[in-house]
Amino acid sequence: xxxxxxxxxxxxxxxxxxxxxxxxxxxxxxxxxxxxxxxxxxxxxxxxxxxxxxxxxxxxxxxxxxxxxxxxxxxxxxxxxxxxxxxxxxxxxxxxxxxxxxxxxxxxxxxxxxxxxxxxxxxxxxxxxxxxxxxxxxxxxxxxxxxxxxxxxxxxxxxxxxxxxxxxxxxxxxxxxxxxxxxxxxxxxxxxxxxxxxxxxxxxxxxxxxxxxxxxxxxxxxxxxxxxxxxxxxxxxxxxxxxxxxxxxxxxxxxxxxxxxxxxxxxxxxxxxxxxxxxxxxxxxxxxxxxxxxxxxxxxxxxxxxxxxxxxxxx
Length: 315
Ligand SMILES: C[C@@](CO)(OP(=O)(O)O)[C@H](O)COP(=O)(O)OP(=O)(O)OC[C@H]1O[C@@H](n2ccc(N)nc2=O)[C@H](O)[C@@H]1O
Ligand SMILES: Nc1ncnc2c1ncn2[C@@H]1O[C@H](COP(=O)(O)OP(=O)(O)O)[C@@H](O)[C@H]1O
Description:
Helix content is 33%, strand content 31%. It has helices at residues 80-89, 114-129, 136-146, 150-155, 190-204, 215-222, 226-232, 238-244, 248-257, 279-292, and strands spanning 3-21, 27-45, 54-56, 59-67, 96-104, 158-162, 167-170, 177-183, 234-235, 262-265, 272-276, 297-303, 309-314. The radius of gyration is 19 Å and the shape is globular.
């Protein structure tokens, strides 16, 4: 191959149960993910690209980013797609190079795992570009090393994550869900939101319980019951995210007032997610939020959708 394009979805967390802080600084989670139809695209092409060359061992990479908040994405070796290319290239057993082009639609630092999505897309694209055919388990292990949410971006669908969120079990339940996402001004640092969650727990003297999957939420998914799912959505990081970004309480209240089946902060935020009863309901809800001026912009999306998928290749 000389060029491979991979499409990769954003995620929303249907349940984010956060356990105590571990000795390694991470938290044990029950993280119920759903992949939604808001996609970044990553194209991997052989040869030098427009971005400055970055090297790691025998791997040379470059990266350019366009689209939603592209100027907030790093163009150095901290870019998660570049890190993914380095990790795959280290297994090639020969010198390899890649020019990465990222087209972003997923908000940056928005709690929708855009960076993780780009890493998963780059893993799949580079594996295909260099003809490595790495086993799926190995790609999953590399993904988990890159970040807690990267394995889910490979898997897609609806799944429960345990450990840091990287140990995944797919949930089979049928159904299609309609979402509205309210994008906020600016982003929130995931590490800062977890730290704020710990601080709040310490301040209230409330010990963190061991995270458990919600039986009600799993039953709602099994029954593909959107109303019941809406009432079961929970996020332990929400109080911390709202404290760090106060306007979110107004955004959430507006979505509930306009008839969302469920409303919550997506992951570490600041994007807010609203579950609607149908595609029409989602469009109406998005319009109402736009008119109310309680967010920077809205997008509608459906879920679940597949994880990182090759959508184009040039021999
Ligand atoms: C909160 C969630 C919910 O899905 O995602 P976002 O909403 O930010 O996208 C995830 O837990 C984020 O996953 P991800 O963004 O991959 O995190 P990582 O790069 O692995 O870790 C970034 C930082 O988040 C904190 N962290 C992450 C995962 C975890 N189980 N416990 C943690 O405490 C740690 O402070 C860590 O240094
Ligand atoms: N390819 C990438 N796209 C977006 N952000 C990236 C990327 N690579 C690294 N980052 C860094 O990761 C941080 C978190 O971004 P992102 O994954 O979009 O948010 P979140 O963790 O809230 O879902 C960003 O602030 C940015 O500095």
